């Protein structure tokens, strides 16, 4: 290849001129095509985090409960009694847009591997989804495919999918988000890492054979969409959950023995990133014979083998002398497992093919010298004008019952049962609070403690104010846990943004990370793992920035778990918190008035922390029977949800407000948003203890009314049979999906 | 009139089902099977006998519903009844 | 209540089984029964006196649910055990395997709405003469979860008449009050059939998951009655 | 040598998937489709070229694995390669 050709090829691999020069410097010679391919995937946005790293470093990652922070396949936190929880969230946005079923399925497969490589048995999945408007011609197809794909993979693996979120907005018309999260349980002394230590130790390849799947996958995930992405379609990967189930059981069986040094899944950039990352973490080298890699097709080249993104594969390093034992376990499970190389001590990656060395790369320089950019940031021009809200131009309706019905049946607030009914959410017999509540609650067999899990992000808030929006995401997640009687232990994030080369997008990113970090510090919730997905845009239109937060909380005694639904007629209903509701940035404004504007509500994090603590105490002492945070849709929606989730009981509520004639301010009371605010209900005999506890802790508490039967009455404005509301709420999601 | 549309995975696309069947065949003691790939066949009964109209229907069916162009190929034939 | 440890129950583990542990844990921890796992590649039932084929996705449910599993070596033994009258229970995927093995009549087609369904449902006991229902009153209802994509029970018309006549329908989907109508049919099954048995009554298959309904904490403990019938 | 086994639902057996496809076709505005039924096609690659041996393999495959005799019929053909 001439120098010119080489430059051209580098460019086609998405390497900038500057990056190409750096390669020449590191190697002190021209790279061959294989080496260039390796550089390109290792230095892609997806693998190197080159645009985001500088900001991610600012997030708090430590705490006494943290066993493993960011940098490994998943984060790990201590839950006591020798046990720990490993968890992480990851995006599969672009592949899911191209092929929703397989894209979402393989996304689930990938995040599951991240967790079980740590030695953890996955016990729960969650998914956070963003689609375009319901009436967009592609939306229904995408929702169907994505949900089916998630169901297909998780159900077949036998891991319950217990929660998530699903939000529709036009900004996702050309670029959906599919973020998948897995939570696993691991014995503290059986945690595995992606290490390649010990000269001479065998490097073993296990799992599916390597095919030509997604050869440009890693670089594709960092590319903006344009019309030519249709042509990239043959790179679709097909998920094989059956093989992954065998891989899971075989790996966990192997991990009971003392044969392993390190293990890592082959995710994006497959064999390349797994081998380089393992060696890099250990400061070692690896020599691999690519001819030994199990191949699905004939005529594959070393380039294809190193860049393939075939699913359901793992790379591991075993203790020398135990390779036969390791291979035996995989044979029992009918899986391919082959020794493909060994650990060296010189810090080089040496790849052989049919006896010849075909690539020779220094690992540390390649990994450490990965580019890191401090990309320019600029506040978007429409930021301030977006905050302006001219309410006088809006037409407010005084038919509040109709507005409530409209909202409760809307795409963003209707019941998500259509989704989670397709997910096996009960397998493993741990699910105590099923999807539908603020957070899912899982018991842990043989332990007294349980956990609660949730994922949250208000994308609209983040668009209107990324700093505040990201804080809200952390706040809401922690509040959802507290409403379940759980104390937040740590979070994982999935930062979905547009093209970072645009200063406005980079600004959104920086602000969101700043806000998230600040909230984490104030609430003492460290970030232990995460994922960044950039270039989420089509033809220049970026998505609403979406820093999804996945959070795990600890319930010290599972008997004291909390849930959203009202439990008994006659119970008293209270409001905790006194943040003032506003219509700015609200779901009401977006759905009823079709306006995305206003500044998201300000957030008193200190008050939020106090309310979280209060809820924990209240649940521990069994002073309350339900708790539910007021989020999208405001008080009227939250109150409805407490009634609706009582399901067959069809409990209602009666609360009374003072007479008021100003339609706008009534609308604000009913549908305005503000955090932190929580609805709790308690038995009549516990009222005074509850009030006392609130006083002692400095929590504003207001009696709103009582749980009653059959009707939701918000005097003097709303009186509706809960059964009627139920039908609208229950049918809304599917109705919108099916309407053309 | 009858017609038949056959939909197959593109070559190179992983076919976990085909592989599982192949394994099962091996465990049954059947030897010499190099590959099994699984496709779908749609048997369609149509009112019209106009071949050009049928062709149009089958093309639309195949591209819009039956095959996923990202990973599948299709072919169709009209069967005289 | 009898001594639940007297009987040894074998739970068959196929590649892709995923309710094997749930079944094991419910039996041993919630009922105090004695259970062991039986590996699909073996031919030995290890003197088990009852066999359970658990739920899951044996062989990924590729091709047809249960189609590949019914060829596993252990199934030869299960089939002869069943033919000798030994009690065999197939739950969900296990039910599908039993129909593929033709130990039970009918087939399980994809759900009418072609989607996986995970939900709490109720079934009515139609036959209390099987080893798994003998302590449950005929006509009583049990609340149990379902979780399947292919649970749509189908059988040709004459055969349907025959199995109904022979009392081979053991479980029927119904509402909370025990009335069975199309409204409470989650998956399109003919005659709301949720589970059947063979003529000899010793082989029973059902789509709902009794092993997931053994604790109040998880929403229901009514599935326990199937195992109590077997053990009691 | 190549061979093909086609497996179809027996008539009278409910075909929810075929029905769903038919519905989808209708909602696309395609008219005059009386019925769509979904079957499977297995494309098999074999080492041997001995036709009687192949026949034996295909028969075993079809009856033991590929088709469920309770609800499905099968047919096979050998394709010269
Ligand atoms: N994609 C999904 N997968 C599984 N469960 C979901 C999904 N979307 C929403 N849910 C469930 O529906 C319920 C309501 O979700 P959401 O309105 O986002 O709750 P909140 O506002 O309290 O965070 C939650 O229990 C959630 O877990
Ligand atoms: Mg909530």
Keywords:
heterotetramer; A: 740 residues; alpha+beta; seven-stranded mixed sheet; 26 helices; 24% strand; B: 81 residues; Mth169, Chain: A; three-stranded antiparallel sheet; 2 helices; elongated; binds adenosine-5'-diphosphate; binds magnesium ion
Write up this protein:
The complex is a heterotetramer, with one copy of chain A (740 residues), two copies of chain B (81 residues) and one copy of chain C (232 residues). Chain A is of the alpha+beta class. Helices cover 36% and strands 24% of the residues of chain A. Chain A is built from 26 helices and 28 strands. In chain A, strand 1 (66-68) and strand 2 (75-80) form a beta hairpin. The termini of chain A are far apart. Chain B is α+β, with helices and mostly antiparallel strands. The mean pLDDT of chain B is 91. Chain B has a single domain, classed as Phosphoribosylformylglycinamidine synthase subunit PurS (Mth169, Chain: A), CATH 3.30.1280.10. Chain B is elongated and about 50 Å long. A three-stranded antiparallel sheet of chain B has the order 2-1-3. Chain C has five helices and eleven strands. The longest helix of chain C has 11 residues, at 20-30. Chains in contact: A-B, A-C, B-C, B-D, C-D. Strand 2 of chain B pairs antiparallel with strand 2 (33-46) of chain D. Residues 127, 129, 161, 163-166, 416, 419-420, 435-438, 456, 480, 631-632 of chain A line the site of adenosine-5'-diphosphate.
What is the compact description of this entry?
Chain B starts with a strand and ends with a strand.
User: What overall geometry of chain A do the principal axes of the alpha carbons give?
Assistant: globular
Radius of gyration over C-alpha positions of chain C, nearest whole angstrom: 16 Å
Assembly state (oligomeric): heterotetramer
Strand order of the largest sheet of chain C: 2-1-3-4-11-10-9-6-7
Query: What pair of chains forms the biggest interface?
Result: A-C, 33 and 32 residues
The termini of chain C sit apart by 6 Å
Which fold name fills CATH's third level, the topology of chain C? Rossmann fold
Please report the number of helical segments of chain C.
Answer: 5
Shape category of chain C: globular
| Low-confidence spans of chain A | 217-222, 225-234
* Structural class designation of chain A: alpha+beta
What's the SSE pattern of chain C?
Answer: EHEEHEHEEEEHEEEH
Fraction of helical residues of chain A: 25-40%
* CATH fourth-tier homologous superfamily of chain C: Class I glutamine amidotransferase (GATase) domain
């Amino acid at each position: 290849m001439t120098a010119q050709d080489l430059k051209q090829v580098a460019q086609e691999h998405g390497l900038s001129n500057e990056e190409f020069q750096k390669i020449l410097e590191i190697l002190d010679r021209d790279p061959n095509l294989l080496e260039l391919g390796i550089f390109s995937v290792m230095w892609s946005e997806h693998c190197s985090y080159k645009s985001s790293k500088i900001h991610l470093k600012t997030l708090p990652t430590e705490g006494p409960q943290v066993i493993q922070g960011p940098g490994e396949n998943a984060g790990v936190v201590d839950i006591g009694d020798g046990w720990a929880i490993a968890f992480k969230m990851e995006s599969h946005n672009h592949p899911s847009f191209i092929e929703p079923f397989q894209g979402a399925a393989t996304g689930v497969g990938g995040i599951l591997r991240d967790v079980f490589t740590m030695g953890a048995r996955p016990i729960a999945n969650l998914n956070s989804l963003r689609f375009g408007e319901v009436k967009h011609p592609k939306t229904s197809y995408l929702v169907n495919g994505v949900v089916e794909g998630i169901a297909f993979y998780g159900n077949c693996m036998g891991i319950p999918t217990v929660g998530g979120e699903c939000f529709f907005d036009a900004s996702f018309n050309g670029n959906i988000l599919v973020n998948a999260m897995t939570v696993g349980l691991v014995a503290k002394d059986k945690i595995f890492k992606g290490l390649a230590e010990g000269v001479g130790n065998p490097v073993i390849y296990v799992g599916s054979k390597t095919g030509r799947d997604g050869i440009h996958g890693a670089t594709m995930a960092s590319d903006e969409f344009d019309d030519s992405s249709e042509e990239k379609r043959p790179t679709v990967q097909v998920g094989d959950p059956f093989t992954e189930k065998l891989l899971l059981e075989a790996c966990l069986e192997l991990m009971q023995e003392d044969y392993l040094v390190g293990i890592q899944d082959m995710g994006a950039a497959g064999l390349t990133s797994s081998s380089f990352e393992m060696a890099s973490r250990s400061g070692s080298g690896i020599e691999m014979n690519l001819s030994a890699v199990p191949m699905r097709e004939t005529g594959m080249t070393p380039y294809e083998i190193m860049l393939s993104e075939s699913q359901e594969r793992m790379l591991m390093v075993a203790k020398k002398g135990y390779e036969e034992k390791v291979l035996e376990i995989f044979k029992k499970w009918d899986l391919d497992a082959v020794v493909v190389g060994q650990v060296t001590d010189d810090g080089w990656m040496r790849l052989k093919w049919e006896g010849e060395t075909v690539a020779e790369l220094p690992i540390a320089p390649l990994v450490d010298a990965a580019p890191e950019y401090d990309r320019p940031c600029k506040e978007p021009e429409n930021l301030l004008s977006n905050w302006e809200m001219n309410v006088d131009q809006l037409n407010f309706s005084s038919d509040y019952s109709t507005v409530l019905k409209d909202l409760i049946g809307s795409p963003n607030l209707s019941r998500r049962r259509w989704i989670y009914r397709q997910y096996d959410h009960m397998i493993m017999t741990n699910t105590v609070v099923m999807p539908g509540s603020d957070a899912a609650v899982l018991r842990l067999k043989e332990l007294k403690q349980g956990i609660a899990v949730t994922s949250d992000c208000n994308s609209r808030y983040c668009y209107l104010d990324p700093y505040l929006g990201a804080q809200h995401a952390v706040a809401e997640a922690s509040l959802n846990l507290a409403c379940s009687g759980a104390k937040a232990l740590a979070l994982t994030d999935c930062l979905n943004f547009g093209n970072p080369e645009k200063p406005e997008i980079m600004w959104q990113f920086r602000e969101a990370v700043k806000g998230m970090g600040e909230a984490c510090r104030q609430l003492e919730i460290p970030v232990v793992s995460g994922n960044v997905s950039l270039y989420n845009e089509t033809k220049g239109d970026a998505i609403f920035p979406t820093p999804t937060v996945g959070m795990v909380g600890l319930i010290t005694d599972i008997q004291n778990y909390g849930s959203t639904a009202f439990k008994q007629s006659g119970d008293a209903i209270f409001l905790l918190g006194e943040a003032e509701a506003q219509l700015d940035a609200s779901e009401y404004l977006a759905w009823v008035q079709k306006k995305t504007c206003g500044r998201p509500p300000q957030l008193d994090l200190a008050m939020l922390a106090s309310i979280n603590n209060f809820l924990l105490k209240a649940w521990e002492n069994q002073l309350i029977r339900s708790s539910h945070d007021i989020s999208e849709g405001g008080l009227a929606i939250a109150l409805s949800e407490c009634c609706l989730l009582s399901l067959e009981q069809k409990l209602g509520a009666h609360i009374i407000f003072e007479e008021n004639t100003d339609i706008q301010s009534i609308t604000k009371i009913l549908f305005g948003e503000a955090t932190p605010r929580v609805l709790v209900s308690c038995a009549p005999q516990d009222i005074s203890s509850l009030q006392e506890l609130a006083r002692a802790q400095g929590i504003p508490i207001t009696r709103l009314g009582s749980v009653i039967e059959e009707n939701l009455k918000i005097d003097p404005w709303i009186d509706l049979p809960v059964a009627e509301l139920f039908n609208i709420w229950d049918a809304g999601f599917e109705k919108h999906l099916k309407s053309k | 009139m009858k017609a038949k549309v056959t939909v197959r995975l593109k070559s190179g696309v992983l076919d976990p089902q085909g592989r599982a069947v192949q394994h099962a065949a091996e465990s049954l003691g059947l030897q010499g099977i190099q590959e099994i790939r699984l496709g779908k066949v749609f048997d369609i009964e149509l009112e019209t006998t106009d071949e050009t109209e049928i062709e149009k229907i089958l093309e639309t069916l195949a591209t819009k519903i039956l095959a996923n162009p990202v990973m599948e190929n299709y072919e169709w034939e009209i069967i005289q009844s | 209540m009898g001594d639940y440890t007297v009987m040894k129950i074998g739970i068959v583990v196929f590649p892709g089984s995923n309710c094997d542990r749930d079944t094991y844990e419910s039996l041993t921890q919630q009922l105090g029964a004695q259970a062991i796992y039986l590996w699909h590649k073996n031919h030995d039932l290890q003197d088990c006196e009852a066999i359970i084929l658990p739920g899951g996705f044996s062989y990924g449910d590729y091709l047809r649910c249960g189609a590949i599993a019914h060829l596993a070596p252990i199934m030869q033994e299960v089939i002869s055990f069943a033919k000798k009258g030994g009690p065999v229970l197939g739950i969900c995927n296990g039910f599908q395997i039993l129909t593929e093995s033709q130990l039970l009549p009918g087939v399980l087609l994809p759900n009418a709405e072609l989607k996986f369904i995970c939900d709490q449902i109720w079934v009515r006991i139609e036959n209390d003469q099987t080893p798994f229902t003998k302590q449950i009153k005929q006509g009583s209802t049990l609340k149990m979860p379902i979780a399947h994509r292919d649970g749509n029970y189908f059988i040709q018309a004459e055969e349907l008449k025959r199995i109904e006549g022979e009392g081979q329908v053991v479980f029927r989907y119904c509402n909370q009050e025990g009335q069975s109508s199309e409204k409470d049919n989650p998956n399109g099954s003919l005659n709301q059939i949720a589970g059947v048995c063979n003529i000899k009554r010793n082989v029973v298959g059902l789509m709902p998951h009794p092993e997931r309904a053994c604790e109040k904490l998880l929403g229901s403990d009514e599935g326990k009655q199937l195992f109590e019938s077997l053990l009691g």
